[in-house]
């Protein structure tokens, strides 16, 4: 045990030498182009042997290196589950939307969850909710039914995003580590605040807002006053200019679509219209990639919820 600990400390100390110092950060800030920034990252040891890497591929490679190091040093990776639950629910969301729309996987699933994404996809395809972990069964069935019957992708999103936050919060409460407890508390509280503001900006009813928010010690969803929600909206009647910023095409993420998630998956265009027929674009700050349906989906990110990992 002592030898393993000594080795682990030595490995971490060695890896600390590769962390960016102030000089490295200043060099990145002074880079005159995207390509120069990529070259600087490669010079610092980022990435692999790829000839023309992108920022996304560099980040993915570094993430894989980090988890490889954790697997090498930590015998029980379950201590990191609290950081991975949002990945699980992202993959569950992807599986449900792929099955409900009859689509093929075009790169929606992300790695490093507590459950293999193939198991999640199989469970959704077979409607085998009992094969899922207990906390996931109810939300999975509810989200699938909501999307299959109403074609409302946003409703599916808030069900699973709320479940992801509940899972993170429960894991934090069960942990004996103060850092993990604080991480879970602040993650859920921050996600709730952003969700409430987005809901207020888009005029969502109070029932919808309370359904989207997860309980935590910092915020009481049940006691959320209507006045607070109203105060989050614009204090004056919006002009044409401000209305376009809040509700129009310059910032379409505020006019519909996912509100809660840190990693948003949009379904094909035929399934993305609301009951009123309005288009549902992707959410705040989303990076989008075209797919064969002509719609878009948000590239997945490391899942610290925004919502969610916002994951809307």
Overall description:
With 312 residues, the chain is mostly helical. It folds into 2 domains: 2-75, no CATH class; 81-298, no CATH class. The chain is 54% helix and 2% strand. A two-stranded antiparallel sheet has the order 1-2. Residues 234-257 and 261-312 have low confidence and may be disordered.
Mean pLDDT: 76
- How would you classify the helix and strand content by structural class? mainly alpha
Please count the helical segments: 12
Number of folding domains?
Answer: 2
Estimate the global geometry from the Cα principal axes: globular
Return residue spans where pLDDT drops below 50 for at least 5 consecutive residues.
234-257, 261-312
Give the percentage of residues in beta strands. Answer: under 5%
